[in-house]
Amino acid sequence: MKSLRLGLLGFGTVGQALVRLLEKEAPRLRARLDLDLTVVAIGNRRIAEKKADWPGTAVRWTDDLDSVIADPDVDLVVELLGGAEPAGTLVKAALERGKGVVTANKLLLAKEGSALAALAKKRGAALGIEAAVAGGIPILRALRESFAGDSVRAVRGILNGTCNFILTEMTQSGRSYGEILADAQRLGYAEADPASDVEGHDAAYKLTLLARMAFGRDVRVEQVSRQGITALQGCDVVYARMLGRTLRQIAEARQLPDGRLHLSVRTHLVSNGSILAKVDGPFNLVEVEGENGGLFAFHGRGAGGDPTATAVLADVVDVARSGRPAAPPFGFPSLLPAEAAGPADFVAAVCLRFVVKDRPGIIAAISRILADHAVNIEAVFQAPWDDKSALPFVITLEPVAQSQVEAALAALSGLEFNVSPPLALPMTP
User: Fold this and answer.
1) How many distinct helices (H) and strands (E) make up the chain?
2) pTM score, two decimals?
3) 71-89, pLDDT tens digit by residue?
């Protein structure tokens, strides 16, 4: 029977879920897989606030996180602290010692993952990262292993459960963004400071990892074009319905014929017939488009203690079986440089939303600016609205490059009748 002693860094929601899951699954792992996995040390800042009786008396509790790394009884370090530091320093220290690491830290991996993978290779240590994207959905393992026989054209989907919960509730209840965000925080779907989620940073970290896996390119998070959901208003839901569409934050990485990568996180108006429109609440969905195999979709809980803990444990089992994951962390022995495509390379039909002080000549003024930027109008929609001092309406555009829309928006934003800045939402299948 193979045994593996774990040192756990971080005893928050996921850390606690992992220890409970391991306790529950230990008999099966011993009986069916000949694996004996035990937690021997738990490190956490302010450990007195976290210490509990249920993990067992044999566990060493400490707020000295370095001591977990140095502990000779620890074979594998599981990092669930989150954030850049001290997690980054601790992970590097473990790998330098030749100790394997399993981590769910998407921010750290997005910013330093390539260097950590190189260090793991140099020291002959395992680096498991499955839990860093989409919770319990095995999307990284699928890209690394199941799609090794195909050329991936694109990866896209809903990667942030907080944003999807907010957009779902806005659509179904008609309540405001602010009200629903407060609910999300109360239910534990959003942090006290929700900026990473609602401004698109979280999805950008995850997309960076997916793109590395999909294309073997050393994508940097700074190359991802990012737009949050904070500018959305209730009127956007009204007009989405009129257009037969649904608001969804979509993260997309697509390889162009010349090898450059289109990388973006932004709100789309997706067709109501799309599978993406049917993903409600705090769930994730990732689509993978292969050159030969076609389109595949992976759906499930993208966050939370239990789903993420299952992904962490899967990596731990992988290391216990063989001493290290079967393939390099990002699926390739080395990553090639990545060149990001620009806004001129993203072409889509677009919905422009305006909120204005009603007066004659508004459509004429907007039309002149759009014409100056070679942007073609498809249709104008104005729902009945009582408040003419803040009147919302939308103009849909024929397929147009994002660069043209951005230039037109810069000019449109200066029009004196605007109550709030115009918003552009791509309309995709």
Assistant:
1) 14, 18
2) 0.94
3) 999 999 999 999 999 999 9
